[in-house]
Amino acid sequence: MGDLLIMAIVCGLFWFMINEQGDQKRQQLTMGKSLNQVTIMGNLTRTPELRVTPQDMSVVNFSLALNRSYKGTNDEWQEDTTFVDVVAWSKLAEQISGRVDKGNRVLVQGRLQSRSWEQDGVKKSKLEVLATDVTFLDKEEVQE
Question: Which helix (H) or strand (E) holds 23?
Fold first, then answer.
């Protein structure tokens, strides 16, 4: 019985040491850092149009409708749609332009960014996805 008790204590201490080290490593990895990654899939609410800024940068803005089905409290299926604004720059913007149309399904990877501006003396802000990659999911794409 004594050996079993000693073994249980040793195992408990070993487990505690492993967890303690794991917690310390987790704290070191997460202290002062953030994670800003977004992956969304939805349907385009309008056809993206390529614009060129005064600084000669290509940009395209579009919005995705993200549809969700769920059972409500009355056990009936409910539909919910979230609209998310997306912006893409440079070569990615040029690749998107002319390749997809309103209603097409796309997968967007990127990060969240906030923008703020003043309009008619009123401060406004917006949270949007800055796309780093866009995958066209429909078989037929708009032909240029």
Answer: helix 2-30
Spatial neighbors of 87 by CB under 8 A, at least 6 apart, are: 59, 60, 61, 113, 128, 129, 130, 131
Number of residues that make up the chain: 144
Q: Which residues contact 31 (CB under 8 A, 6 or more apart)?
A: none
CB 127 within 8 A of CB 114: yes
Mean pLDDT of 90-94: 96
Give the structural domain span for 15.
1-33
pTM of the shown model: 0.71
Cβ contact 94:54 at 8 Å: no
Residue 142 falls within a domain, yes or no? no
Q: Is 144 helix (H, G, I), strand (E, B) or coil?
A: coil
9 pLDDT higher than 70: no
Q: Please provide the average confidence, as pLDDT, over all residues in the chain.
A: 85
Are 84 and 26 members of one domain? no
DSSP 64-132: EEEEEEEE-TTS-EEEEEEEEEEEEEHHHHHHHTTT--TT-EEEEEEEEEEEEEEETTEEEEEEEEEEE
